[in-house]
Amino acid sequence: xxxxxxxxxxxxxxxxxxxxxxxxxxxxxxxxxxxxxxxxxxxxxxxxxxxxxxxxxxxxxxxxxxxxxxxxxxxxxxxxxxxxxxxxxxxxxxxxxxxxxxxxxxxxxxxxxxxxxxxxxxxxxxxxxxxxxxxxxxxxxxxxxxxxxxxxxxxxxxxxxxxxxxxxxxxxxxxxxxxxxxxxxxxxxxx
Length: 191
What we know:
It comes from Microbacterium barkeri. The protein is of the alpha+beta class. The protein contains three helices and eleven strands, in the order ββααβββββαββββ. The chain has one domain (4-188). The radius of gyration is 16 Å and the shape is globular.
């Protein structure tokens, strides 16, 4: 199965696919340093990301704010503009998103949540679906799990969700991957 677009600017690549991306020298160096299972996930994520971009786009790992190494979220430059990108991996595949605004995606295997998430879940809400929304916001924020997930305030809004985190506002949507996966995307609201 090739890379599949699941929403505008969002691509899914199943683990069964053998598509490989063209890697930058930094990505090739990073892939070579990873163990086989992590390398496969990384390569799937890059393939899904590359499917969303023009071949001339430059994709480089960002610098980690904690250690300074290049292993953060992908940084993308295309036609002289900076784009925001996010990738997420689960058993079965990798998800990638690109946007002109800060973006975060999260995908989880539908059977993955065996313990309650480390956040309060609204009554009647599916804990795993709620978790993917929160984690997508944390990724869009750029700090990920260095921020307390309980700090994300989610409320229904139209056909999706509105999230707030330390004054920033995000549009959040569930993504339909397949019956085996739960996913969400968060994008900062335009000003």
